[in-house]
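User: Study the fold:
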Amino acid sequence: MKMYRPNFYESTCLRCNEIVYQVDRVGPLKDFTFFHSGCFKCCHCGTKLTLKTYYNNQHKHDDKEVYCSSHVQRRALVI
């Protein structure tokens, strides 16, 4: 029985934690994270995102999730 080992061109999807192959991969994003194209959606509302429409949490740099423009946590403006 042959054991399956991922190679250099395969990564793990941040959202579902399954292997994502190069043909279905979005990324790398910040901190070298990857998503399946179907998993690349706002973690709050599920809106499908693109590399031009996604945002990262600006308050917590360890938060690697992706958000739409309506649900991203932005820094408060100081007046």
About this structure: The radius of gyration is 15 Å.
